[in-house]
Amino acid sequence: MLHRVLILGALLLVVAGSALGWWVASQPGRFALQRIQLSGLNRTTQAEAMEQIRVQAGTNLLWIDPRTIKERVQGLPWVRGVWVRRIFPDTLSVEVTEKIPVCMGVLGEKLVLMDEYGQAIKPYLGSDPLLLPVVRPPPNKDGPREVVWLINLLDRFPGLKEKISEAVGYAGKRWALYTKNGVRLLISANADQELGLLMKLQGKYKILDRKIRQVELRIPGKVAIRVKP
Predict the structure, then answer these.
(1) Which of 9, 65, 114, 223 would be a feasible disulfide site paired with 105, CB 3.0-4.6 Å?
(2) Residues 209, 186: Cα–Cα separation, whole Å
């Protein structure tokens, strides 16, 4: 019986000591916030991030909830991920990773910036970077994945990518690409081979610089060209 009483008393002392320690540590003036370290900001401004962090200098670090700050900062359009840490005795660290814009997209009637996962970042504004091509994803649930496929495809043909102004997706991973001088290129899921053949013809005959309306590349091993009248 005495043994149990001693154990209970020891537990009560531990709990009381912890509570007292927490009370002392959480008093105003202790662990006062002096610095906020912001890193990873590129397109998100420091003012936008600070507006979501919403903590004042001098606040006790123990009163700051990192999870709440993470949720608020993650709501900013350019932000992909957030890591929030309290660094005792006086610092709050907020590390941000941002989305990477790869093209502009047309969703419904809105022009938006799209990220590396084919998802909309935000509506396009005049102050935003002008990214080409403008992509109209195919109207299906795989639209974002096909946008990523298209951008990765064009990255393998940089000499062609710089000529493309618009891309329109259709069912079955079929795309119509439009060059800046108005040539329409029709490609399919076998686009690697199709565009490879196109670039060989471009290198030899400069067909994309001629008066051509359309290049049909979906016929295996062949190219059908429609000239302008």
Answers:
(1) 114
(2) 17
Domain of 124: which CATH number?
A: 3.40.50.11690
**Residue 224 — φ and ψ, nearest 5°?**
-110, 125
Q: In this predicted model, what pLDDT tens digit does every residue of 28-47 receive, in sequence order?
A: 557 899 999 999 999 999 99
Question: 129-167 b/e with 16+ CB inside 10 Å = b?
Answer: eeebbbbbbbeeeebbebbbbbbebbeebeebeebbebb
Q: Which of 66, 69, 125, 71 is nearest to 101 (CA)?
A: 125
Q: Are strands 110-115 and 212-216 parallel, antiparallel or unpaired?
A: unpaired
Instruction: State which of 98, 116, 131 marks the end of a domain.
Output: 98
Domain boundary among 45, 73, 98: 98
Contact 195, 186 (CB under 8 A): no
Paired strand residues for 157 = none
Low-confidence residues in the chain, pLDDT < 50: 2, 5-6, 9-10, 12-27
**Distance from CA of residue 208 to its chain's centroid?**
33
Q: Is the peptide bond before 229 cis (omega within 30 degrees of 0)?
A: no
How many domains is the chain partitioned into structurally? Answer: 2
Instruction: Show the domain range for 70.
Output: 31-98
Output the pLDDT for position 221: 84
